[in-house]
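Retro notes (design track)

What went well: tokenization of the new backbones is finally stable.
What didn't: we kept losing track of which sequence belonged to which structure.
Fix going forward: every design gets posted as structure first, then sequence, in one message. First example under the new rule, 539 residues:
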């Protein structure tokens, strides 16, 4: 069923027909995949290209190729078509010299004005002349109407952004050149430290600071490609920005099979609202609760379900006050940014209080978001590590990666897992080691489930079976008062799905703890409790 979700509905219909039920309620839960199971066909990106990177049914592992600058063309076209307004004037900042202007090629069917980079960043006289040239070019481009879009090509250097800022920082000039509703777009591969961020933030906080004013970063990924595409967007004067952003993500998903991620959207200052007299003052008695009360009374609780997920390499074990650690800034267990800190306190619920090296204090951090700060001694190829990466404008963070090659002078070539993977040679002193993780086996999985069942629910009549699936396996246990399904994906993930007719949360948590006792290399990453029944029963 891992690649045939349509069969789930067929099975459901068969069960309902066999029982003879007239009313049903159901739910679906997404858990880990299964290694070694044939994948369903994945949409190609760009459409019609890169046929070798598409995962066909029956392939064990799809061959991934990296995104290239040419892949941005489709994204830029879709973005312009979604955020633009009628009769646009689009200004494209292109690199000077012989460098290709990728953005110009993407928008060849759109009316554009091309401004070539002229700043040096070193020659003051040349930069002053460049500022003057840029101003007059933009003024001539707006002889009929004002600029509604500015596209910054990925090859344009940051020095040109400073020139653009100096031209527009005069309020009279910006009002003369820019339409009331305009956008800035910065397409690119999602490498670290894109320089346009500070420019877009200046637009949001200084130039067009009253809402609607939005600065967004949209990331695009594909199951057939490594890395990510990035689209930086600043929008001013468009009250429909969020709905247009949704349209963009839906179009890219349906047309190219791209998954979209929007880490954050920063808004401008809200407009000042005058005091007013409300037409209605509402309280609890103002609302008709008949439907809600009826639904509540119709609920028929039948039991409880708990879904627990575990991963190999999750931090476990005690920590002491004063111990040096790394804390997960992004609240992620095996990815994201990690920052050096010191444990300054422990809490009754098992969490910890940290003081980061920048003096900020964070309290109540769960153990799996903390890793011991142990620097590398001797590393092996393919070993998973945490690597210090120096940022241009931010703090220096540690990122997950793996060793590719041992180099002379205590250096290593490593692959660093950021928003886009990058290969770098780093010093041994900038590498933190992680506890060794190990796989389990189908026999171990069965023993883990059996221990939990026998310890809590066994009546001597329970039925326990195990069945292989791909590289992993599924263990099931059935008894008179419930059932449990444990899944191992053949790699680093375990899932435990427990249902009982008794709604005892503490018993479910004890079951998960007993299940994990057999192995020391896995730790819990999530656990969700759900009431089950008819009515429907809701959380």
């Amino acid at each position: 069923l891992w690649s045939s979700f349509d069969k789930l509905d067929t099975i459901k219909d068969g069960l309902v027909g066999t029982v003879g039920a007239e009313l049903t309620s159901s739910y679906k839960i997404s858990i880990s995949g299964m290694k070694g199971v044939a994948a369903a066909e994945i949409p190609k990106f760009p459409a019609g290209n890169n046929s070798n990177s598409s995962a066909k049914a029956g392939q064990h592992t799809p061959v991934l190729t990296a995104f290239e600058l040419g892949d941005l063309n489709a994204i830029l076209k879709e973005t312009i078509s979604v955020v633009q307004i009628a009769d646009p004037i689009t200004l494209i900042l292109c690199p000077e010299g012989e460098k290709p202007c990728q953005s110009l090629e993407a928008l060849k069917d759109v009316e554009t004005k091309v401004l070539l980079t002229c700043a040096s960043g070193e020659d003051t006289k040349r930069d002053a002349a460049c500022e003057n040239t840029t101003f007059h070019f933009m003024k001539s481009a707006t002889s009929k109407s004002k600029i509604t879009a500015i596209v910054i090509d990925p090859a344009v250097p940051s020095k040109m952004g400073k020139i653009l800022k100096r031209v527009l920082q005069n309020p009279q000039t910006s009002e003369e050149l820019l339409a009331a509703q305009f956008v800035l777009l910065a397409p690119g591969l999602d490498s670290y430290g894109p320089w346009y961020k500070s420019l877009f933030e200046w637009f949001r906080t200084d130039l067009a600071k009253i809402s609607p004013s939005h600065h967004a970063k949209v990331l695009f990924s594909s199951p057939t490609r490594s890395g990510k595409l990035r689209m930086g967007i600043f929008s001013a004067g468009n009250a429909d920005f969020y709905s247009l952003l949704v349209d963009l993500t839906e179009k890219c998903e349906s047309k190219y099979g791209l998954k979209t991620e929007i880490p954050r959207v920063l808004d401008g200052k809200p407009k000042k609202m005058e005091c007013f007299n409300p037409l209605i003052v509402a309280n609890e008695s103002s609302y008709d609760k008949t439907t809600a009360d009826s639904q509540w009374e119709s609920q028929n609780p039948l039991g409880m379900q708990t879904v627990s997920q575990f991963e190999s390499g999750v931090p476990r074990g005690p920590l002491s006050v004063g111990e040096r650690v790394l804390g997960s800034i992004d609240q992620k267990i095996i990815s994201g940014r990690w920052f050096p800190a010191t444990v300054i306190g422990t809490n009754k619920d098992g969490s910890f209080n940290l003081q980061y090296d920048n003096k900020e204090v964070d309290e109540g951090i769960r153990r799996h978001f903390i890793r011991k700060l142990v620097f590398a001694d001797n590393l092996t190829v393919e070993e998973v590590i945490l690597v210090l990466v120096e940022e241009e404008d931010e703090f220096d963070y540690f990122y997950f990666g793996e060793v590719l090659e041992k180099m002379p002078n205590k250096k290593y070539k490593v692959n660093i897992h950021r928003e886009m993977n990058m290969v770098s040679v780093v010093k041994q002193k900038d590498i933190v080691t992680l506890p060794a993780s190990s796989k389990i086996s189908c026999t171990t999985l069965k023993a883990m489930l059996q221990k939990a069942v026998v310890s809590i629910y066994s009546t001597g009549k329970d039925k326990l079976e195990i069945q292989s699936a791909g590289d992993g396996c599924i263990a099931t246990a059935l008894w008179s008062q419930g059932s449990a399904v444990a899944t191992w994906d053949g790699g680093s993930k375990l899932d435990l799905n427990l249902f009982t007719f008794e709604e005892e949360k503490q018993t479910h948590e004890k079951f998960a703890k007993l299940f994990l006792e057999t192995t020391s290399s896995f730790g819990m990453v999530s656990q969700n409790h759900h009431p089950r029944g008819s009515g429907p029963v809701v959380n």
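Added context from the reviewer: Residues 48-62 have pLDDT under 50 and may be disordered.
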